[in-house]
Amino acid sequence: MPAKKSSNSSTASKKKSKTYIDLLIADHDKVRALFKRFEKTEDDDQKREIVETTILELKIHATIEEEIVYPAFRENEVVEEDMMDEADVEHEVAKNLIAELENMKPGDEYYDAKFTVLCEIIEHHAEEEEEEIFPEARKSKEIDAEDITGRVADRKQQLMQELGAELAEAK
Fold first, then answer.
1. Which residues of the chain have a pLDDT value below 70?
2. SS (H, E, C) the chain
3. Domain for residue 13, yes or no?
4. Which residues contact 49 (CB under 8 A, 6 or more apart)?
5. How many domains does the chain have?
6. What pLDDT score does 163 carry?
7. Domain that residue 139 falls in
């Protein structure tokens, strides 16, 4: 009589591994949580910490999208060109606000307003990705999701080390 397989054998293999899209959405969720924390705090030290963490997360996320994900989307014509152009412009606007915030401190005029506008831009950008761009990418037969996922994970780790060290030195 053949041995009966355990019903919970290799539970891990039954779990779907995360794709690059799942990783990017997790980044969106992490930043959304930071935005909510910022809205609730009045403490300047906590605000500074939240803004610094958010900026680090956004720099890593944007770099990964710009170096790996967006070029793959453009090359494989995953979505319309003008939608990718909009995403690029949203990144540029966010980078400008980030640069301004990096030269400010809590209590400075427009500090809270600039961070709030950054949050709004990022929220809009994330919604467009999650509702329009990523669903198209998931359907694409041209995208090598496994390859992109590996590259995204590797680059994220590298950027976390590089930018995390920069942030620690700046303090």
1. 1-16, 165-171
2. CCCCCCCCCCHHHHCCCCCHHHHHHHHHHHHHHHHHHHHHCCCHHHHHHHHHHHHHHHHHHHHHHHHHHHHHHHHCCCCCHHHHHHHHHHHHHHHHHHHHHHCCCCCCCCHHHHHHHHHHHHHHHHHHHHHHHHHHHHHCCCCCHHHHHHHHHHHHHHHHHHHHHHHHHHC
3. no
4. none
5. 1
6. 82
7. 18-170
